[in-house]
Every structure is written in structure tokens, then in C-alpha cells.
Fold each of these.
Amino acid sequence: MHPPIDQESPTDALRRAARILRGATRVAVLTGAGISAESGLATFRGAGGLWEGHRVEDVATPRAFRRDPGLVWRFYNLRRAALAQVSPNPGHHALADLERRWGSDAFALVTQNVDGLHQQAGSQNVLEIHGTIRHVRCTGCEAITDRGTEALADLPACEACGQLLRPNVVWFEEALPEAVWKRAEDEVARCDCFLVVGTSAVVYPAAGLIDLARMEGAAVIEVNVVPSQASSRVDVLLLGPSGTVLPELVNALA
Ligand code: OAD
């Protein structure tokens, strides 16, 4: 059991986290919107968050898309356009460094993010459990195409069959992509150390991975600017922006 957080200095917490991580044979990571905040992308919850400016029910459910696909596409096209303006930050790069250190067979990065910044930073074993907004999926023929950050129409049509396209992301009330989710569960169940970065840990099943890791005996290290729903059940909480804390953690391993 770890000492109460308020009795441990940030430096001691970092040292303890580095010790745990150094001793791990397999590492898994769960990231959320917070890791991309320092790249300039809005998170979902809290002041200025995406869900403050938009109701989830209007832009991120299958029903919303049936009712008003143009509105949903305008929301996602704005987010796609934002991607063209941003790049990975030191937090993304630090996770890519960790993967190089452990090797992709022993390191998996599970992300709830749909922005593709982890891959841009060089991460390879990335499991995008909520999909990616760089890809579109045809509502007719189901073909999935990588459209990058290219500007799309408000009602974009499939080049193959002419039917309406949708962003290839997971909306509320939808199931996660089965094969990707299964791999995520396997990686988390097998890891010795689970890093949880920049997520409020309120959206399931993603947040359930934290319980899975604990149940299977992994140590859990969390990085967040404030305590999250997960903080009471982690081994070390590193409070601070991931763009600073993750590079510090990598340095502390040396
Ligand atoms: P949230 O917006 O819920 O949470 C972002 C978390 O990042 C918060 O806990 C912040 O405190 C933290 N944070 C902000 N800036 C940070 C920084 N610089 N460094 C570290 N942490 C920082 O985003 P998610 O947890 O990703 O799902 O949300 C989970 C899911 O809910 C999303 O994938 C999306 C959303 O609705 C779907 O769209 C299906």
C-alpha cells in the first residue's frame, strides 16, 4: 500500500514511480484527452471542454447522426481541421521513448484519443479503442478509408458507392471495435506496470482497464493535473502536466 499522497513529495513520488517502472517486464499505458491538451487540443470535460460547447447527444451518438448528419460532420470536421494545426508534445514523445526502451512486444499503448498524435510521435503498438477521426467509414459499403486531415464536405460521400460517410470513431451507445478491445484487455492483463495518463477515468469500458490491471496484480501509476476518479486506486499519482511529468519519468529511469 502506498503512503498517503499528501505525505509524499513530488520528487519522492517520481522516484517511486521510476523504481516501479524500471522493474516491469511488460508495460501498458492508457491515455486520454489530457495528454493532447498541451498540443492545443481541447479535452472533453471541464471548463472549455468539448462537452461544454456541445451536447454529447447532439454530436456523438448514432441517433444524432441519423437526425442531423451535417451537424455531426461539422463538429468532426472542426476537430479534423484542428489536427492539421497541432503536433505531438513531449508527453507523446516520452511514451514513444518508453516503447523503444521496452520494445513493441512488451509495451502497448491503449488510447481513448482519436487524434493520431501517438503514432505521429513514433509510438507503434497503439490500440485506438475509440477509433480515429482521420479515418472515415461508409454507412453503405462499410469501407474504411484514411482521409488524414483533408477537408471534407458537410455530407461527404463514399468514393466507391456514393453513400454517406461517417467518422470512424466510437460514439456513445456504440460498441468498441471488438478485436482492438480484446487486444487492449490482453495487454493490460499481462502487464506488470500500467500507466494511466490524462484521463478523467469516467467513461467505461475504458476506465475498467484500471481495475483489470489491479486485479491482475499490476502496479498502477497515474499522471494527471488533478486527481481523477481513478486516483484513489492507483499506486502512485504523479500530479502535473504530462508534457512535463512523462519526460521527467523517462529521465528518472536512466
Ligand atoms: P476528459 O476530458 O474526460 O478528461 C481529461 C483528463 O485530462 C482530465 O482528468 C484532466 O484533469 C486531464 N488533463 C488535462 N490537461 C492535462 C495535462 N496537461 N496533463 C495531464 N492530464 C491532463 O477526457 P477523457 O478521459 O479522454 O469518448 O474522456 C474519455 C472519453 O470521454 C473520450 O474518449 C470520449 C469522451 O466522451 C467518446 O467520445 C466515446
Note: Residues 32-34, 37-38, 43-45, 49, 60, 112, 130, 170, 172, 198-200, 203, 223-226, 228, 241-242 surround 2'-O-acetyl adenosine-5-diphosphoribose (CB under 6 Å).
Amino acid sequence: MRFTDLGLSEPILHALGDCGYDEPTPIQEKSIPIVAAGHDLIASAQTGTGKTAAFTLAIIDDIGTRPSGKGDTPLVLILTPTRELAQQIDENIREYGKYVNTRSVVVVGGVSSAQQINKIRQGVDFVVATPGRLIDLVEQRELDLRDVEFFILDEADRMLDMGFVHDVRRISDWVPRPRQTLLFSATMTSQVASLASTVQTNAQTVSVAPPATVADNIDQRVMYVDKADKPELLLDLLRHDDTEHTLVFTGTRVAAAMVTRHLEVNGVKASAIHSDKSQSQRQRALEAFTKGKIKVLVATDIVARGIDVDGISHVINYELPDDAENYIHRIGR
Ligand code: AMP
């Protein structure tokens, strides 16, 4: 499929050409027609999939090519969890909308609001905001949401993780209905679904697989070893390498238990975390690991999805995962 098949107008296609985009990504292919048709949309897609263009292109096209003059209050409100993401989206809007005269303002905390207020006063179509500062400006009556037609929640799962749920709901109540609401999230948790059900109507759903890429600040090494020699090699690595907080992955619970015993017998403080362990046992192991009381956590993939510990220095794939996704998930901890 090409961008021309998605019904986008010439100025937008021209700008995409300038960006060097040859063809739409899967999330763009699926989302743009739904957005253009005016439906609400729930999309599961991560950063790196091209999601920003997926939710902005059809809207920039609609607003940018409106014949009548535009007002002074925003028509589009995009909420994001972080300042960096807001900046990024704003830059994208400027790029994609450069031939249709799109006015976009970033509204985020951590910097003085005077400049943001100034820009808003000069007229604005797109507001790209983090929840806190947006609420401040609305409460100070510097920002009026009554003309907003498009309401977009980007990285909804992260916004909820960061504790913005009440802020998001409050802002949603300020945006008049009928409106078009788009929600993008890397994961579809029950909290995200619950938020979606209150802010959207008859939303259509799309999803794409996450891009299989690894953060570039992770060094990877492969060691060829006979199966029988693995326990010794593991001990050697843990003793002599600069390993601090280390996660060791095995394929099965039985293997996790065996590896843990082997480490403990040899004087390395370790704990296993797998589905045979109770929630409180897992919690205790995680706490001990976080506090540095144990150096090594031995885990299986299923349980590993819930682990989120800062400062992991090494991930050892004692047994290889079944697929590439799991590998990326393991080493991305
Ligand atoms: P995003 O997921 O929106 O953060 O986009 C990830 C990166 O992909 C950004 O650098 C975009 O500029 C780029 N990108 C978005 N759509 C396309 C496309 N259709 N072709 C090539 N690059 C793209």
C-alpha cells in the first residue's frame, strides 16, 4: 500500500515525501482510514511503529485544508505522559503539516508557562500537552477547550502508570462531545480498557506487533558451551565478571530451581522466581534482590513479565528463549 491509497491530500503527501517516507507502516495503514472516517480508535502500538503519523496525518489533513478561517482556540488536544514525547509529537506535526500552515503549541511542565501562554494567544490548532500543565492553564483560563474536536491519548498505559488517571479523566470531561477520541497504548491492560470505555464511543480496534529492536545501550555476548559445563560457566561469570544485579533466565521452573540450588550450594546468594512460588514469596525475592541482599534472581519468562527492577547489570540467558520477542523482552529489563 502507498500513502496515496490512504486518501491523503497533496500537501500532506508532499511533506511525507520530504520526510523520506516511502510507504505507510502497518499501524498507519490500519489507523489512517479509521481516523479519516471519523471513528474513535483504540490502537495498540509502541513507539517506533510510526504511531505519531498514524494519529496525526488524517487530522492535519482535515484541519489544514479547511476552507473557512480557523479560530483562536485549539481543535486538537493530544495528551502524552512526558515532555520529551510532547516535543517529539509537536515536531512531527510541524513536519507533516508544513504545507498547510498548522499551528501547534507544546504545553508541558518544568518550564515557564509565559511563552506557552503567549503562543496560545496568537492562535492555535494543535495543543500537545502533559496533563499537569494543561490543567493549570485551563484553570487559569489561559486555555479554552470548548472547540476541541479531536482528543488523543498517546501512550495511555504509561500515563496510567505515572498516576495520571484522575487528571486524564478530568481533562476528558472538559473536552466537549461529540468528539473523535483516539487512544494509543503499547499494552492493553484492563485499566487502559476501563479508561477507553469512559472516554470513547464505539471505538474501532487495531493492533500491530512491536518492532523487534533492542535498546542500543545493551551489550550482547554469546558463549558457546557444552550443556554439562553450563553450571560451572555460570558460577565463573558470577564470581569473576563485574556482575552486580543479575537476572538468569531458564526455560522451565525445574531448571530455575536447579540453577538456584547450584548457586546457593556454591556460595552465591540467589533466589528463584517462577510460577510455583506464591505471590508473597516472589515479592520477598524481588525485594531482597532490589535491596542487594541477593545478587542473582533466577526466573522463567512467564513470571519475568512482571519484574521491573532498576539497576540490573547483567541478564544471562542460561537457556535460550523460544522466540525473538521473548529474547528482547528478557534483555530489555
Ligand atoms: P513513532 O512510532 O511515531 O515514534 O515513529 C518512529 C519513527 O519512524 C520516527 O522517526 C518517524 O519519523 C519514522 N516514521 C514514521 N512513519 C514512517 C514511514 N511511513 N516511513 C518511514 N519512517 C517513518
Note: DSSP finds 14 helices and eleven strands in the chain.
